[in-house]
């Protein structure tokens, strides 16, 4: 049955309820998907030793994973805005399953790159469609719904240090094979989601919402002021993503060098940073529903600055506390930026999710290459210091239009 973008991005009526069951399932699938992706940076210390890879080569692996997702997510989002395809979700996770299997048995650097490309493709399909499901299930609580969805992904990423310490350190590269079972569980859950998604499309068509929405935002041209605001949002994502990329991919090496930590000890510090980020993601959405999205985006970046700038200069116990605090504060705006972009351009839910979340991956990919090169050139310590000042760019949030103005633009 042919459907339109309007079918999946209706104007929700006040009586519509939030579908928490669907939100929790798609959030769990996001956790499983991103825990698989987290295997790749988690394997960096192991691959560095077993294959003798440089920081630049490790950065290229992260680039290969993330750039495919960055390029393809907006493409997938635009395609499914025009013609929804609910079963794209389990198909995407199947690609990830093949990628993680290939990673476990990759004999050299070339095959690692090929394997992570499959994982990146699966991510490109999953993320915009997963965000669309969260939007469809949100009712009137879009910030909360997006937080439930995104916190699943951030929790999956936070599992990387535990994966390293408990699975990859004792089992090595072959330990990645265990995650084929994780991918298979995700595929099964997403088949269930796909049937719900299909039923929801049919309900909306019967209710006549497709016709109503087709006469509204979907055919409305995007004004210059909306484009300007959207570009600014994407630039803020750039700053946040480079910082997160630097910490996720290289802080473990920094902790090993500065504090003489073992791999497992360094991963525990990174785990604390990522878990606190996941908690921040969860609380950011409800706070934005109450206090406004622009305000939360601004505060999340500016309040991070003194912490991120001081982390390289303090003893390990204080660094641990600062990592926890900075992860929570900075990531509180993660889901908020997605919702802000979706409300800037209503009716393009998949496209905006693809741009915002996809750009986060893409900027992280470019950041991995750039920061790896900087670490090879001026030293790892100096690279971490430079990275700590990226959240200063959050001052540009002051140039964003307030939430009320965005609502007025789209009436």
Automatic annotation (TrEMBL):
Gene Ontology CC: one annotated term: plasma membrane
Topology of the protein relative to the lipid bilayer: Multi-pass membrane protein
PROSITE patterns in alphabetical order: MFS (PS50850)
Domain spans labelled Major facilitator superfamily (MFS) profile: 22-406
InterPro entries assigned to the protein according to its UniProt record, in alphabetical order: MFS, MFS_dom, MFS_trans_sf
Residues annotated as transmembrane: 20-40, 52-72, 84-105, 111-127, 148-169, 175-197, 226-245, 265-284, 296-314, 320-341, 353-374, 380-401
Gene Ontology MF terms: transmembrane transporter activity
Pfam families: MFS_1
Keywords, in A-Z order: Membrane, Transmembrane, Transmembrane helix, Transport
Protein name: Fosmidomycin resistance protein
Gene source species: Cytobacillus oceanisediminis 2691
């Amino acid at each position: 049955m042919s459907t339109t973008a309007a079918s999946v991005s209706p104007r929700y009526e006040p009586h519509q309820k939030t579908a928490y069951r669907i939100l929790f399932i798609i959030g769990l699938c996001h956790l499983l998907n991103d825990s698989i992706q987290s295997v790749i940076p988690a394997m960096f210390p192991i691959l560095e030793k077993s294959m003798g890879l440089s920081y630049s080569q490790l950065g290229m692996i992260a680039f290969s994973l993330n750039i495919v997702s960055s390029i393809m997510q907006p493409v997938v989002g635009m395609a499914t805005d025009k013609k929804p395809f609910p079963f794209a979700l389990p198909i995407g996770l199947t690609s990830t399953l093949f990628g993680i299997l290939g990673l476990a048995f990759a004999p050299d650097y070339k095959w690692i790159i090929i394997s992570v490309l499959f994982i990146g493709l699966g991510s490109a399909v999953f993320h915009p469609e997963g965000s669309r499901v969260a939007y469809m299930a949100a009712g009137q609580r879009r910030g909360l719904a997006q937080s439930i969805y995104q916190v699943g992904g951030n929790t999956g990423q936070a599992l990387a240090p535990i994966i390293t310490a408990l699975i990859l350190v004792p089992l090595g590269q072959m330990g990645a094979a265990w995650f084929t079972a994780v991918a298979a569980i995700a595929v099964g859950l997403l088949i269930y989601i796909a049937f719900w998604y299909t039923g929801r499309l049919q309900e909306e068509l019967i209710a006549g919402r497709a016709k109503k929405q087709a006469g509204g935002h979907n055919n409305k041209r995007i004004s210059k002021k909306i484009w300007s605001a959207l570009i600014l949002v994407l630039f803020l994502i750039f700053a946040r993503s480079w910082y997160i990329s630097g910490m996720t991919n290289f802080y473990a090496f920094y902790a090993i060098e500065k504090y003489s930590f073992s791999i497992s000890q360094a991963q525990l510090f990174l785990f604390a940073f990522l878990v606190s980020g996941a908690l921040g993601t969860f609380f950011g959405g409800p706070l934005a529903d109450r206090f406004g999205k622009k305000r939360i985006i601004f505060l999340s970046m500016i309040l991070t600055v003194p912490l991120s700038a001081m982390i390289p200069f303090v003893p390990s116990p204080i660094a641990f506390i600062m990592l926890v605090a900075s992860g929570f504060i900075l990531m509180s705006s993660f889901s908020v930026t997605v919702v802000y972009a979706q409300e800037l351009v209503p009716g393009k839910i998949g496209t905006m999710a693809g741009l915002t979340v996809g750009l986060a991956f893409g900027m992280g990919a470019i950041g991995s290459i750039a920061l790896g090169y900087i670490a090879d050139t001026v030293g790892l310590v100096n690279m971490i210091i430079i990275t700590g000042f990226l959240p200063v760019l959050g001052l540009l949030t002051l140039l964003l239009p307030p939430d009320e103005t965005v609502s007025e633009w789209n009436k």
